[in-house]
Amino acid sequence: MKVHSRRTLPWMFLLFLVDPGSFQDLVSKGFIGESVLLPCNSSRSSVVAVFWRDKDDKVLLDIKKGELDPGSQDPKFKGRVFSFPEEYQKGNFSIIMRKLELRDNGTYECTILTGTGPEKIRITLSVEERNSASCGSTRTNVLLLFVFSALSLMFYV
Ligand SMILES: *[C@@H]1O[C@H](CO)[C@@H](O)[C@H](O)[C@H]1NC(C)=O
Ligand SMILES: *[C@@H]1O[C@H](CO)[C@@H](O)[C@H](O)[C@H]1NC(C)=O
Ligand SMILES: *[C@@H]1O[C@H](CO)[C@@H](O)[C@H](O)[C@H]1NC(C)=O
């Protein structure tokens, strides 16, 4: 058994190099405190495992042999990232990330290992504050007005 795994492992690795599989690049947007769906689905039937990782290689979620592997989840995502086990059969390995924080802003990768090569989906998630643009500009405008009035008063006097 050991000899077998030692021999097949390099071959599996080679398969990755030879067959880059399919790659998808997506963008998504979310708001602080809200939820966002990060899509990842496959049309292939021979799915072996699914790995969700962030840019620092932290584990969001792992699905192995058609089942959720809850032990591997990084504390950063514990209780905040969920998948839809009832959708696995349909090749839908999307996840939902709840209670978004500003630090969730970044890229995420979903790797689907299949019998016929890997599939990778990269999602660039930007997390924003709702209406942050208008709030920020209003605050800046008030400040500018104040500085401007103060300055003109100085020159006037
Ligand atoms: C994933 O699902 C979307 C929407 O249903 C579809 O457009 C896309 O082709 C699917 N991707 C794969 C790899 O099956
Ligand atoms: C995957 O499942 C989620 C949750 O039910 C759903 O919102 C999403 O549209 C599904 N994606 C596809 C490609 O079916
Ligand atoms: C994250 O935030 C920075 C700063 O606001 C921004 O430049 C960047 O585009 C955002 N998105 C990602 C995916 O890093």
From TrEMBL:
Keywords: Cell membrane, Disulfide bond, Glycoprotein, Immunoglobulin domain, Membrane, Receptor, Signal, Transmembrane, Transmembrane helix
Sequence ranges assigned to domain Ig-like in this UniProt record: 33-126
InterPro entries given in the database record: Ig-like_dom, Ig-like_dom_sf, Ig-like_fold, Ig_sub, Ig_V-set, T-cell_Activation_Regulation
Signal peptide: 1-23
SMART domains reported for this sequence: IG
Subcellular location(s) per record: Cell membrane
Membrane topology: Single-pass type I membrane protein
Domain of life of the organism encoding this protein: Eukaryota
Pfam families found in the cross-reference section: V-set
Protein name: Ig-like domain-containing protein
Organism per entry: Ameca splendens
